[in-house]
Amino acid sequence: MSVKCFIDPCRAAEDWAKERRNNLFYKHSRIMPLQASIRHGSRFMHVYPFAQFCLDQVLKDPQHEGGQNDPKSVWSQFMGLLSALDHIHDGRPEQYGYHFDLVSNWC
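RESULT FIELD:
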């Protein structure tokens, strides 16, 4: 599990609530699913699954166990990420997405 903490004392509660709402709203295979949302006093946290591999390492090392570096695999990953971006930015004003929550299938 990966824990994201909101630490800005002026915006933590607002940012935590906004991201929680977005995580519950967006459903896409390339958007990291929220596992738990915790508020304890002045601490605000979200819990996400922990990525198995670092995409940067997978792309730099063709022999990495997490994926393949052949053009078809890389293109497939790229198209999947574009699909998630399209899902976040489909033109509806009530939608606000965060790009750091996007994942590849290699993760």
